[in-house]
């Protein structure tokens, strides 16, 4: 989310780097900045791409900063963004109480002010996308949020998202793209976020990332619909109405966990198994080098696994009630398999051949151990 103060700034009068200079000068070391209106003890940790300034008492898990660095590097590689030789994104990690009292986000749960992220959650990849993409310019809010939704990490996968079908297989009618683009709000209303991500992914799949980013750069935060439609046709060679019609016909049943890119999840360390049965114990320990998050809030690890031959599988999570495991497809809308496992629960799932990620998370403050059993069901 971009805060209202930035939304009202003039993109045409200044580049992203000029904005970055202004806000870094005025908001740097945010605990004592003009907007935060007060001082608080903080601790700084520098990574390759991200510098974290955390309120006193907040401690990252051992692998969190490395994950943030890798996420920014991987996203920058994907969109062709050159990196600097020092940290260029500042992440202000605040306690929920401090954030509620003194943040510049205009009531939003987190925001990015160009290259500075303000959040009470860690590592918040959605805002890292906003910060990294700030050099592309201040685009229309539908496409700003669409880019972040399409590339963010999978924290939303743990629970059904607003765009998923109900248990009975029915899905609520989705908001319409053209209505969202004609909305003149200063920032994108929340009901359009999933739609923006889905449409962004569709444009990238259909026209390629290079053309999508060219269109992204040619839009402006306050562009009226007519200007968006003109630039859309100039870049993509098709009318906005035609492409929206195709999207709504072809992708109406493709929801968040299928359309989002899984840049790091699907490049995670791979679990070895024989393709028929996996039975293995895992641990979640905030002190482990692979652990991401903060102890007692959310600690997670991610592994990848390969299904060599399609089939039906029985999935079970054993041992600890404090753990949830999500198994998701590394494919897109053509292969949207997803399972959410809780302790003692058994599920059956049809898995096409391909790569999958396995994400485990807990809010326990102490290390936990759990077991995962995945076995092929015979014909």
General description of the model:
The protein has 379 residues and is an alpha+beta fold. The protein has twelve helices and 14 strands. It is 31% helix and 23% strand. Strand 4 and strand 5 form a beta hairpin. The strands form three sheets. A five-stranded mixed sheet has the order 1-2-3-5-4. The chain has a five-stranded antiparallel sheet with strand order 7-8-13-10-11. Residues 7-31 and 33-37 have low confidence and may be disordered.
Kindly list the characteristics that best describe this protein:
379 residues; alpha+beta; 5-stranded mixed beta sheet; 5-stranded antiparallel beta sheet; 12 helices; 31% helix
How are the SSEs placed, and which strands pair?
Elements lengths: L3 H4 L8 H12 L14 E5 L3 E6 L8 H16 L9 E5 L2 H6 L8 E4 L2 E4 L5 H9 L7 H11 L25 H6 L10 H15 L1 H10 L6 H12 L3 H11 L5 H4 L17 E8 L7 E3 L3 E10 L3 E8 L4 E7 L8 E5 L3 E6 L2 E9 L5 E9 L3
Parallel strand pairs: 2-3, 3-5
Antiparallel strand pairs: 1-2, 4-5, 6-14, 7-8, 8-13, 9-12, 9-14, 10-11, 10-13
Helix pairs in contact: 3-5, 5-6, 6-8, 8-9, 9-10
Could you write a compact summary of the structure shown?
The protein is of the alpha+beta class and 379 residues long. 31% of the residues lie in helices and 23% in strands. The strands form three sheets. Strands 1-2-3-5-4 form a five-stranded mixed sheet. The chain has a five-stranded antiparallel sheet with strand order 7-8-13-10-11.
């Amino acid at each position: 989310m971009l805060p209202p103060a930035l939304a009202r700034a003039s993109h045409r009068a200044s580049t992203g780097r000029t904005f970055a200079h202004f806000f870094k000068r005025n908001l740097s070391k945010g605990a004592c900045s003009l907007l935060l209106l007060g001082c608080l003890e903080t601790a700084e940790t520098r990574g390759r791409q991200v510098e974290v300034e955390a309120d006193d008492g907040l401690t990252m898990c051992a692998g969190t900063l490395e994950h943030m660095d890798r996420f920014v590097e991987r996203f920058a590689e994907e969109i062709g963004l050159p990196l600097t030789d020092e940290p260029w994104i500042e992440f202000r990690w605040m306690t929920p109480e401090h954030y509620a009292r003194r943040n510049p986000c205009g009531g939003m749960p987190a925001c990015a002010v160009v290259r500075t992220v303000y959040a009470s959650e860690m590592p918040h990849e959605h805002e890292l996308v906003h910060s990294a993409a700030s050099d592309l310019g201040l685009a229309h809010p539908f496409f700003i949020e669409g880019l972040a939704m399409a590339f963010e990490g999978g924290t939303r996968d743990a629970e059904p998202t607003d765009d998923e079908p109900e248990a009975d297989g029915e899905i609520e009618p989705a908001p319409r793209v053209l209505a969202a683009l004609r909305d003149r709000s200063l920032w994108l209303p929340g009901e359009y976020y999933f739609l923006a991500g889905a449409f962004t992914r569709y444009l990238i799949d259909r026209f390629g990332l290079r053309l999508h980013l060219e269109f992204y750069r040619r839009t402006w935060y306050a562009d009226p619909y007519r200007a968006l439609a003109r630039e859309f046709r100039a870049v993509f060679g098709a009318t906005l109405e035609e492409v929206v019609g195709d999207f709504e016909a072809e992708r109406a049943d493709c929801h968040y966990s299928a359309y989002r890119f899984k840049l790091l999840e699907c490049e995670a360390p791979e679990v070895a198994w024989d393709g028929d049965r996996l039975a293995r114990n895992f641990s979640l320990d905030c002190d482990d080098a692979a652990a991401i998050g903060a102890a007692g809030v959310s600690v997670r690890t991610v592994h990848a696994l390969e299904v060599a031959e399609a089939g039906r599988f029985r999935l079970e999570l054993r041992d600890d009630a404090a753990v949830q495991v999500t198994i998701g497809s590394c494919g897109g809308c053509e292969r949207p398999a997803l399972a959410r496992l809780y302790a003692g629960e058994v599920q059956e799932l049809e898995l096409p051949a391909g790569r999958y990620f396995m994400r485990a998370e807990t809010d326990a403050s102490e290390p936990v151990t759990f077991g995962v059993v995945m076995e092929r069901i015979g014909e």
